[in-house]
Write a structure and sequence with these properties.
By secondary structure, the chain is mostly helical. 55% of the residues lie in helices and 0% in strands. It has one domain (18-100).
Length: 103
């Protein structure tokens, strides 16, 4: 999972690890708290959407963003937050939402 900061509890890498994100979606990672994962995923998604919407420097593709959003929803549900929804499922959907809402 690409989570760039040195303070990142998952360790910094430059590649999105889709299998790790899928594993996280299915259940907690050994030795990690779900709250850590929520913070890391939230920052990853925020940074990627901001990059996509401002200068096109995002690193995730549609599939990766979709997997990250699904994992975030799953981890939030494990933490008892069941009403988290965004009006898109991936970068393409985010673009449509952005244009439709003059964002």
């Amino acid at each position: 999972m690409r989570l760039e900061t040195e303070l990142d509890p998952f360790g910094s890498t430059s590649t999105f690890n889709a299998s790790l994100v899928e594993q996280l979606r299915r259940g907690p990672l050994p030795g990690r708290e779900d709250i850590e994962a929520v913070v890391a995923l939230s920052w990853l998604i925020h940074d990627e959407l901001q990059a996509y919407g401002t200068d096109g420097s995002e690193e995730l593709d549609d599939d990766d963003m979709g997997e990250a959003l699904r994992a975030l929803r799953a981890v939030l549900a494990r933490l008892g937050i069941n009403d988290f929804e965004v009006p898109f499922r991936n970068l393409s959907g985010f673009r449509r939402w952005w244009l439709d809402n003059d964002a």
